Amino acid sequence: MHQxxxxxSTRQRRFAWLGFLLAALQAPVSAWLxxxxxxxxxxxVALMVATVIxxxxxxxxxxxxxxxD
Length: 69
Hints:
Layout: H1 10-33, H2 39-61
């Protein structure tokens, strides 16, 4: 059984993981350094990138001959 291709290329997937890690690490650091709630923006960006990575995983795990309804 062949696996389907994802929505991201291998290079895009690596950059997505890098972006997720950087945004996820920046959130607690900026929360510690800044008194306002601007660190929530980093958290939201990290969650959006994580959603794209999860969607790519789901597309890759779907069999190549599966139809979407």
